Amino acid sequence: MEELRQWLRNEASEEYKTFSARLIPGCDNMLGVRIPVLRKKAKEIARGDFRSFLSQSEDLYFEETMMAGMIIGYAHIGIEERIELFADFIPRIKNWSVNDCVCSGMKIKSGEYEPFWDFLMGYRDSGKEYEIRVVAVMMMNQYLIPEYIDRVLHVLDGLQDEAYYASMGIAWALASAYAKFPDKTLALLKGENSFSDQTFNRAIQKMTESSRLGAEDKQMLREMKRNARRRI
């Protein structure tokens, strides 16, 4: 582990650290190693004795935490072990960057969707900012498919969205759902739903930023934005 930490220090860039630290508030243990470099090393470790690495891994550096999460996604293991390792890792998520990079690399295979879905649903009512974001981002990455879209929209509507990064994760997932299933997503947004004004408007904003939408669709979405002051 100390050899790996020395490798991380050698790969670090002060310039990249300064740039990244501005994007990740509160992350004061960053060395400044680029994400593609971390991914490559994590894949290398995942092909070897990754369990030993995970048993020793701590949160001394942001990059060490990031790599541990990446390895869980890259390792060639069964769904039961992946769920167990991911459950142990989730409490270590303290920022959006680790959350989103790890979730994007957590690929679910055919036949594993249902057990992993059941696992995610164990966090839907936790009320914890990054546990909620894990649910939203994992659903966005893996479950925006015909077999699950109705369930995804139902769950997104019920997630607690008071915390900023939870709200942003839900909004991102809604915008991605709209890109793939516009009619179903629009029906939810136009009907009765539980989204806070902030989450609702953030989702609309993300939708209108898409280059795939025409001017008329973007105008229609902008007209749906809520006036928070009116609703008080």
Major sheet attributes: none
Low-pLDDT stretches are: none
Distance between the termini: 54 Å
- Count helical runs: 15
Cα shape: globular
Structural class: mainly alpha
Write down the secondary-structure element order. HHHHHHHHHHHHHHH
Rounded mean pLDDT is 94
Q: How much helix is in the residues?
A: 55-70%
**Beta-strand fraction estimate:** under 5%
Structural write-up:
The chain has 232 residues and is mainly alpha-helical. It is 67% helix and 0% strand. The chain contains 15 helices and no strands. Helix 5 (62-74) runs parallel beside helix 7 (96-104). The N and C termini lie far apart (54 Å). The model has no long low-confidence stretch (mean pLDDT 94).
Provide key terms for this protein.
232 residues; mainly alpha
